[in-house]
């Protein structure tokens, strides 16, 4: 399965065998192009994807040691994401599928993040709860089996990744914010400031906007405060809430395993506390490597493989949908 991902600012292609065996995974990040604007500029992203999609795909085939004739199917992210960016990957994937006369498979980007945890550890265990924490989404999803998802909780306003990015920008740590806060927090004191743990005892939904406001208010009223201490205390508050709710969700639904996915799953403190919580609660932990947490095409190929098995090829007249939702069991 050749997977293609262009939903945001990463141009990625990967070859995956049997849904789990990664033969190659090439990611070309556009971070440098967008950094001077402090965020992703959609038109710049689309243009860069157009320039990179062919060389990145060729490299993925080369690194896998195969050529087009060996590809059995092509999967691409059809949403959610930036429309111009999505269309580049979807058009390329359809063109290749048509030229090679193999099936095309539409993949939901969020579903692909759920699958990242299985790539490096194919021994699937259901029912499983996934804490999906990306730039645009914070969700707790119950996976009952392939393609069977139930939404247990989500963010009502800001996603966790968005909170990291906004707090980093406010602290002058630059873009992308998550890795910058992660690095600053390494040398800060997580107990220096007691920021609120929003909605900690309140259901399985999340809200990080109050926390963000507290950080801003604290820094404005304590201008001499150490940036590293603020970063570490903020990160601790986010991770405490994420881990507490993931554990509660797993307990409530009787899950046997807990998985982490999405860009924020690359966070050092979250990874450490996630593993600790799974060990304490006797849950099998699926923790993708950092490269598989952030956007990549191996997770697209994996999700595409199972989708093709379940539902067959996607018709070539399917479009890209910037607001595509994860398909949830009613
Ligand atoms: O999943 P992803 O790569 O793209 C989306 O689908 O949104 O997630 C990107 C998000 C950004 O908000 C970024 O700041 C965050 O993941 N992120 C991190 C870390 N690495 C990336 N957040 C916290 N700590 C990190 N080490
Ligand atoms: Zn993503």
Quick synopsis:
By secondary structure, the protein is an alpha/beta fold. The chain is 45% helix and 18% strand.
Task: Write up this protein.
- This protein has 330 residues and is an alpha/beta fold.
- The protein has 2 domains: 2-113 and 295-311, ATPase, nucleotide binding domain (Nucleotidyltransferase, domain 5, 2-Layer Sandwich), CATH 3.30.420; 124-291, ATPase, nucleotide binding domain (Nucleotidyltransferase, domain 5, 2-Layer Sandwich), CATH 3.30.420.
- It is 45% helix and 18% strand.
- The chain has 11 helices and 10 strands.
- It has helices spanning 31-35, 42-64, 83-100, 109-119, 160-170, 177-186, 209-221, 227-253, 268-281, 290-293, 298-311, and strands spanning 2-5, 10-17, 21-29, 74-79, 104-108, 128-133, 138-145, 148-154, 257-261, 284-286.
- The strands form 2 sheets. Strands 3-2-1-4-5 form a 5-stranded mixed beta sheet, sandwiched between helices.
- Helix 5 packs across helix 6 (177-186), helix 6 (177-186) crosses helix 8 (227-253) and helix 8 (227-253) runs parallel beside helix 9 (268-281).
- It starts with a strand and ends in a 19-residue tail after the last helix.
- The mean pLDDT is 95.
Question: What are the main properties of this structure?
Answer:
single chain; Nucleotidyltransferase, domain 5; 2 domains; five-stranded mixed β-sheet; 11 helices; binds 5'-O-[(R)-(carboxyoxy)(hydroxy)phosphoryl]adenosine; binds zinc ion
């Amino acid at each position: 399965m050749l997977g293609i991902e262009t939903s945001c600012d990463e141009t990625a292609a990967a070859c995956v065998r049997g849904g789990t065996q990664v033969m190659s995974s090439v990611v070309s990040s556009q971070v440098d192009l967008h950094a001077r604007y402090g965020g992703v500029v959609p038109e710049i992203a689309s243009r860069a994807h157009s320039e990179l999609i062919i060389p990145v795909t060729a490299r993925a085939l080369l690194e896998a040691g195969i050529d087009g004739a060996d590809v059995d199917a092509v999967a691409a992210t059809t949403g959610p994401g930036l429309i111009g960016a999505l269309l580049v990957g979807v058009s390329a994937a359809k063109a290749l599928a048509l030229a090679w006369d193999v099936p095309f498979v539409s993949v939901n980007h969020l579903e692909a993040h759920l699958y990242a945890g299985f790539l490096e550890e194919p021994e699937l265990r259901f029912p499983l709860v996934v804490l999906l924490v990306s730039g645009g989404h914070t969700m707790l999803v119950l996976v009952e089996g392939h393609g069977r998802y139930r939404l247990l909780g989500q963010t009502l306003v800001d996603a966790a990744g968005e909170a990291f990015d906004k707090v980093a920008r406010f602290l002058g740590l630059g873009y992308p914010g998550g890795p910058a806060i992660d690095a600053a927090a390494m040398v800060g004191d997580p107990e220096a400031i007691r920021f609120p743990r929003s909605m900690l005892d309140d259901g399985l939904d999340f809200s990080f906007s109050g926390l963000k406001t507290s950080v801003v208010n604290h820094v404005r009223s304590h201008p001499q405060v150490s940036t590293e201490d603020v970063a570490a205390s903020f990160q601790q508050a986010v991770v405490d809430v994420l881990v507490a709710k993931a554990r509660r969700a797993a307990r409530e639904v009787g899950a046997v395993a807990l998985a982490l996915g999405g860009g924020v799953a690359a966070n050092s403190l979250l990874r450490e506390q996630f593993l600790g919580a799974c060990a304490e609660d006797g849950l099998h932990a699926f923790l993708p490597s950092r490269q598989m947490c952030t956007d990549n095409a191996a997770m697209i190929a994996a999700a595409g493989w199972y989708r093709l098995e379940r539902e067959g090829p996607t018709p070539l007249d399917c479009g890209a949908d910037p607001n595509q939702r994860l398909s949830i069991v009613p």
